[in-house]
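Morning!

This is the sequence you dropped in the shared folder:
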Amino acid sequence: MVDITAAEQEAAEKIFGERLDLAKRYVEHLATSGTERGLIGPREIPRLWSRHVLNCAVIESAIAMDSHVADVGSGAGLPGLCLAIARPDLELTLIEPLERRVIWLQEVVDDLGLDNVTVMRTRAELAVGLVDADVVTARAVSALTNLAGLTIPLLNGRGEVVAIKGRSAGEEIEKAKKVIRKLGGVETSVVVCGQELLEEPTTVVRIIVNKPGKSA
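The structure's back. Tokens below.
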């Protein structure tokens, strides 16, 4: 079992509620087969709850009910699987190009019985037209200047990008603002999630997309 501190347990209970046991099973997958197959570094095991799972799961507060969420470069399911566990109302499409990661993701989805998750083996740019997302998420994929082009087109002209970023979020927005505008982004902001739950809250870049001619 992966150790969980009292503070992490309290945060996890608030985020995952009655599905906390599923979250714990997911963390065990990360610590065992996820580490063995190179999806998570061994040194990350003591920090799986704080730095990874809770850090990702708190962004659920930025996502509307019943949204279809596409997670670009899902890797070890961060944040996609965290959201699928925390929010059974969401429909998740995990987009991941590497076969070994896709196999692992599907094994975890099957073991946890997550019927709100589809795993898709492809690159984000090739998924355009195949996925019609309301929200696109990403974590540790690319700088925003490049990430905008990988995420915004999956919205088909209308929706939101919710990308987990670090302290350089403001700088990244400044560098990417022309690209974002060109792709249909009408408002870009930095949002902090989990301030009341985590010692280190999660910084998110939110891009609202509304291309001319697209209606709700």
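Headline: Strands lie at 68-72, 91-95, 117-120, 135-139, 158-165, 185-193, 202-210.

More detail when I'm at my desk.
O.
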